[in-house]
What we know:
Strand content: 25-35%
Shape: elongated
Helix content: 25-40%
Structural class: alpha+beta
Distance between the termini: 34 Å
Number of domains: 2
Order of helices and strands: HHEEEEEEEEEH
Strand order of the largest sheet: 4-5-6-7
Oligomer: single chain
Amino acid sequence: MVSQMKDELKRARAHYPVRPDSLEIFLRYRDHRRSVRKVATAIFAFGVGIAAIGVALASLTAPVEKGLSVGTEPIMEGPGRIVFSRWSAGEWRLFSVRPDGTGEEQVTDGSRDFYAEISPDGSRIVADTELPGTDGLLVVNLDGTERATFAVGEAFDPAWSPDGTKIASRSTAASRAAA
């Protein structure tokens, strides 16, 4: 992969003046972005773990009325799926599962698909993804069909509008401009 990048850089140098250390700068920047993503993923996973512990502790201390069935009702109507990211075969991929933990299905096979959110109608997913040479957003049906990607640069944490017609995401470029 590095040799391929070097070849592409050599071709680009024929058309544009380039500093002699451009490849090294690019590789440092790429490695830095990967490190930031790994740290962000670890922080996210830690936060999810803490939230799960909090939910478990809250459920242990919550009063239960006699005759009330706890944990057997679906948590939402419609498709009733939970979407999550998992490190699988050296890649981040999206999976879905029913609220009771059954029926796990792999939704994507991308190299880095996470920060997913289900659309308000429960039919589609938007997620952060990695595209060749840039980051992007992925929109895909809940069953993994009709995959569409959009190269939007360093965007993450995508979210649907309440009516499901628009998508918003955070950008590190916007964060740098605000700082």
